[in-house]
Amino acid sequence: MYKQIGVLTGGGDAPGLNAVIRAVVRTAIKQFGMRCIGIEDSFEGILGEPKVMKLTTKTVSGLLPRGGTILGTRNRGSFAKIVDGKVIFPEMPIEEALSNLKKLEIEALIVIGGEGTLAIAEQFHKRGFPVIGVPKTIDNDLSATELTFGFMTAIDIATEALDRLHTTAESHDRVMILEVMGRNTGWIALHAGLAGSADIILIPEIPFSFDSMVEKILQREKSGSKFTNIVVAEGAREVGKEQFYLDGDKKTRLGGIGNYVAKRIEELTGKEARCVVLGHLQRGGSPNAFDRMLGTNFGACAVRALANGKTGEMVALKAGEIVTVPLAEAVANIKTVPVEGQLVRTARDIGISFAAPNEPK
């Protein structure tokens, strides 16, 4: 049994991070008599002069509804670099981190993050250090788990935004575009578009055509609906073209597609179009009840997995149960929207367009 474990959060923040931390600390102390150390600023907190805090049940009291992470997080750092389009893991930072962990008497780590953070966690496992991962991303793009915490809250926020845009679009006979996060997947856009009554959904998995989009808008005009609501994932792209990046050639920050769609719609239809970029509102604030529950489940089960001798694994939701899967499997592929899947079929059945060329009727 481990005497002292560490916990850290990495990557972008997501609603429910503090719920996981709270569950880790309470389970470790109350059930297994372990001590807990929080590592600040992700893996960067164990380089140089370590930045850590002692975590007790008092420390985590009241955290359940709180957004963000009390430990801080980073989605850039020293542990992983991109060289010629490939991710490499420099040897020295990990060896330095392992040395610091030994000095801190931290015997195992619980790492909360998305595929990038968990890929770093796997490198610690490969060097023999016990680690359990917890899947975190509002994008819901980790293939080894049915859901990641933070996703449901992000959908709630995007759906509420669509509800609000619906009334103003109808009042002014405008085309309203809502750009949401999701990176290279369309899970947020698809779920929110269905729940928020979007007329057109643009996702990375189905490249779109402006001809099809204009056709849908004009069809609505003929039927008496002089407004159109469009939800677009930040990674969506036009047929034959690349994705939009806020930082241009660096290609690290997706975004800008919503404003491009608004401009082109105005040019092609003569209708007023407005774009709202939801951005970090999807990641901030209090988690909803589901994400509090899922984060708590994940945190408690991660500690139990360590106590049972598991390492190099990630906790995951499958068929309503929390299981563990190898970290290597968890980060091997991203989970994309099946273009012939149930959600896409349902959207088309109720009249939502994906603006694909030769869109199925």
Give an overview in words.
The protein is built from ten helices and 13 strands. The radius of gyration is 22 Å and the shape is elongated. Strand 1, helix 1 (17-32) and strand 2 form a beta-alpha-beta unit. It has helices at residues 17-32, 91-103, 115-126, 151-172, 187-195, 210-222, 257-269, 289-307, 327-330, 342-349; strands at 4-9, 35-39, 52-55, 81-83, 86-88, 108-113, 131-135, 175-180, 200-202, 228-233, 273-277, 313-318, 321-326. With 361 residues, the chain is an alpha/beta fold. A seven-stranded mixed β-sheet has the order 3-2-1-6-7-12-13, sandwiched between helices. Strands 9-10-8-11 form a four-stranded parallel β-sheet, sandwiched between helices. Strands 4-5 form a two-stranded antiparallel ribbon. The model has no long low-confidence stretch (mean pLDDT 92). The protein folds into two domains: 4-149 and 287-330, Rossmann fold (3-Layer(aba) Sandwich), CATH 3.40.50.450; 152-283 and 338-349, Phosphofructokinase domain (Rossmann fold, 3-Layer(aba) Sandwich). The N and C termini lie far apart (60 Å). The longest helix is centred in the middle third of the chain and has 22 residues, at 151-172.
What's a concise summary of this model?
The protein is of the alpha/beta class. About 35% of the residues lie in helices and about 20% in strands.
Domain count: the total is 2
- Contiguous low-pLDDT stretches (5 residues minimum) are none
Helical content class: 25-40%
**Rg, alpha carbons:** 22 Å
N/C terminus separation: 60 Å
Q: Which second-level CATH architecture of the largest domain applies? A: 3-Layer(aba) Sandwich
**Average residue-wise pLDDT:** 92
